[in-house]
Amino acid sequence: MKPRVFAAFVAPSLLMMLIFIAAPLVSVFGQSFYVTQPVYETVEVESCTPGFPTANCVTETKSQPVRDEDGRIETRTLFVGLESYRNLLQFDRVGEYLSSGNWASILNVDFWAALRFTVMFTLITLPIVIVLGLAIALAVNNAVRSIRGPVIFMSLLPFIITPVIGALSIRWLFIGDGILTAALEEVLNRDIAMFAQGWTIELMMYFYRVWHVAPFAFVIFYAGLQTVNQDTLESAIVDGANRWQRLRFVVIPHLGPLITFVALIHLMDAYRVFEEIVGFSSQSHVISLQWLTYDFLQPDDAGNRAISRASASAMLTMVGIVILLIAPVRRAWREHKGER
Amino acid sequence: MTARTMRQPLSLRLASGAFLGFWCLLAIFPIAWIAVMSIKSPVDAFAGNFGDVLFGPTTRGNGQGLSVLELLIGGAVVIALARWAFSGLPRHVRRLTPAGWIAIGWLVAGLGYLAVFGLVVFGILPPVLGALDAIAGPLGQPVIGATFEHYYAVWVENAFWRNFVNSLVVTAGVVTISLFVGTLAGYALARSPSNLAFWLLIAALIFRALPHSVLVAGYLPVFINSSDWLAPIFGDAAPTLYGQPYAVIAVLVAINQPFTIWMLRSFFQNIPTELDEAARVDGCTHFQAFRQVIMPVMWPGVITTGLFSFLLAYNDFLVTSLLLDAQNQTMVPAIASYFNRETTTTDQVEAIAAAVSITAPLFVLVMVFQRQIVSGLTAGAVKG
């Protein structure tokens, strides 16, 4: 295919990605160094209350936003350098906590709390998703042919469901004296409030994410299991390998690339954890990096959006993505060079 | 030898079967449970034991319930309609639509089926069964509490249908545009081994990993002030992009593009290049070969990718909740207003009814397109 033809085919898609992905990235980077604020002026206001014989007049200075002819509040944009980053990271407070040995207090700073949860969430769910997905795939592969279709159908439901709704459906099972909380109380014989403390909410979030993603891992692994080389399996049996050894030394190495694929996709998606925070309304206990940006973008009571700080937190979130993707991109490049 | 040596001991088969059963229960329980909760009065929906939620004594006490007669006849009608959708309907569609119009035929058939289903289940059944109940004696007494008042409140009183229409507009726009733009790019990328193509794919991979909030942080200030910076081009008619469904469509298409081109590329790679070469030898240009030779055999891939684009647009919360204002809100962000409100339990059950309404189309989607979804999931993976 000639370069010109190639360009013509790719142009519409490339244009969309340039305008709506690359350009916003650049502008977010720029925005993170600027702050847009209303312009304030100090005015002297004389307020009088009626009195006798003369009115009581008080003059006071007030600061108020400047309005232009249309009555809109005038704003100006200032270059603040790394101010927004500093506001987010709060190194002085962190340093204080570190030197006083008060490690846990670092999590009082929103950014560090969000980072802690995001990383923990990603790393805890990853192995569970892979093991559970593999277990379901093996069990389905083991099952009678006629029930495989229905099982796949039921498994796809948690995967396909709208993430916010999925999180909500788990929340409704536990909220108040919801059905599962009541069951747990019965079993443990004690009063349980699942939404009163951070760690129980976190448990429900892990549970939701595993429930939501395990079907994806299952479908991929199940497809991989269909192509396991039967001859290798048989020779392994002849060599006296037991069931576990066959799984460990034949099946899992065969699935290796797929496990990497699932892990990569899961890392990318789990790092963006967001819908759980909305679904479980957990913002007062647990927040994630993406939720932090979202929160800055929401208008506050006065209708202002903290665009600068949102941009700074977005850029810091990006750092994680870059670290995550270095290894796979290098591997893909090596393979690409090998192919040509 | 295979059959014998591969046979498993009974204990292992039992364990594996039990595990599978447990997983299936786990997979469907939350979804099935909210469906049950949505048709109960609040007291029953949030009751602490399984029986109360399932049978809904309070709901029944209010005189809202289904009798044995209604359960039997209603259930039979619904099952018959559902079965006909998978047997009779495809046959009729194939018989009645002229060749080449099959996609339009299915669209019309789907909409017609929905209309008939709605008319029969919500229009004809209730009055007929009500009349039957009155003469059926004990069989006509309600046994299971069930009420559709929450659905009525959500769809009619709270005008959820407006959000539904917005969702339809956004998803339809996203699916058509992403497929149109994506097939062109996916085809070119599948057929070009150049470094440029490689780096485009890698860039797409990186874009796919981006948290969407990062991008929205870039759009928001631009969209809110767009009437200012668009003024030189459009004059006084310059639109404010914030709150406009078409702006959201463009954004979602772009966000979806990396995923779409990766998936379409792997489907295009499965089509042998001999096919294009033959068309080229016969004198087609690249575009003609693409349009007249490759696309007709690409339908399965296009349908699958379309499904995933649909899911992305339909399920999105972050972009739509930040870029759309209240009157243009789609269904998923609209539901947030139910549980953020200072809520009574009635609001909660209405939120559940709304959630079930959002999930129902997805349920149908999995039922109809299960095979395509599975093939889409594995398309990228097997290639690696």
UniProtKB/TrEMBL annotation, chain A:
UniProt xrefs under InterPro entries: MetI-like, MetI-like_sf
Subcellular location: Cell membrane
Gene Ontology cellular-component terms listed: plasma membrane
Pfam families, alphabetized: BPD_transp_1
Spans through the membrane: 7-29, 117-140, 152-174, 206-225, 246-268, 306-327
Family matches, as SUPFAM superfamilies: MetI-like
CDD domains: TM_PBP2
Domain ABC transmembrane type-1: 115-328
Keyword Membrane included in the entry's annotation: yes
Gene Ontology annotations of biological process type: transmembrane transport
UniProtKB keywords: Cell membrane, Membrane, Transmembrane, Transmembrane helix, Transport
Nuclease listed as a keyword: no
Family in the record: Belongs to the binding-protein-dependent transport system permease family.
Protein name: Trehalose transport system permease protein SugA
Species name: Roseivivax jejudonensis
Automatic annotation (TrEMBL), chain B:
Alphabetical list of CDD domains matching this protein: TM_PBP2 (cd06261)
Residues passing through the membrane, by range: 12-36, 66-86, 98-125, 164-189, 196-224, 244-264, 297-314, 351-369
Main localization, broad class: membrane
Membrane topology, record value: Multi-pass membrane protein
Keywords: Cell membrane, Membrane, Transmembrane, Transmembrane helix, Transport
UniProt-listed InterPro entries: BP-dep_ABC_trans_perm (IPR050901), MetI-like (IPR000515), MetI-like_sf (IPR035906)
Keyword hit for Aminoacyl-tRNA synthetase: no
The ABC transmembrane type-1 domain, residue ranges: 164-369
GO biological process terms, semicolon-separated: transmembrane transport
Keyword check for Glycoprotein: no
Pfam family of the protein (one): BPD_transp_1
Cited SUPFAM superfamilies: MetI-like
GO-annotated cellular components: plasma membrane
Compartments reported by the entry: Cell membrane
Family: Belongs to the binding-protein-dependent transport system permease family.
PANTHER family: INNER MEMBRANE ABC TRANSPORTER PERMEASE PROTEIN YCJP, MALTOSE TRANSPORT SYSTEM PERMEASE-RELATED
Protein name per the record: Trehalose transport system permease protein SugB
Organism of origin: Roseivivax jejudonensis
